[in-house]
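Example S7 (structure tokens).
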């Protein structure tokens, strides 16, 4: 099982790498899901995610997750062929955690190239990204991490 750290990684680019590795047959664990970032103005990004949650019927769906680990899983799910057995099997090999669980404390996470959010600096006036933790809290998730 390979372990990847989502801290300070751009969500879409990070998830596309994860999806490709899942389809190749690897088992993957992602830690620190709440620290992944979505680029864009925070109010626009949060509004987009709120529209996804509010869409549909509360009984029949479609349902969109509110917690950061589930949002990351849903993003990966959108990048694999979910309606084919190959995609479903790949998705079962993905484990996503908020923070670092006890069984993965000593494991060194592998590095993913090309998806670091260090260029998106969070300054006072011009904020260019928002973390999954902030999105989750705006969607009404109870902080359990």
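Recovered sequence:
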């Amino acid at each position: 099982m390979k372990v990847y750290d989502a801290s300070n990684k751009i969500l879409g680019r990070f998830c596309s790498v994860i999806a490709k590795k899942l389809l190749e047959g690897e088992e993957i664990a992602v830690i620190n899901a709440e620290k992944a970032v979505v680029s864009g103005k925070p109010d626009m990004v949060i509004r987009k995610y709120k529209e996804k949650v509010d869409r549909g019927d509360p009984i029949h769906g479609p349902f969109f997750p509110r917690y950061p680990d589930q949002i990351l899983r849903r993003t990966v799910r959108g990048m694999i062929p979910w309606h084919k057995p190959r995609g479903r099997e790949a998705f079962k090999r993905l484990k996503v955690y908020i923070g670092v669980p006890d069984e993965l404390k000593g494991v060194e996470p592998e590095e993913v190239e090309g998806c670091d959010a260090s260029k998106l600096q969070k300054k006072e006036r011009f904020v260019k990204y928002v973390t999954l933790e902030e999105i989750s809290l705006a969607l009404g998730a109870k902080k359990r991490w």
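Notes on this example. Helices lie at 11-23, 42-54, 68-77, 85-92, 132-139.
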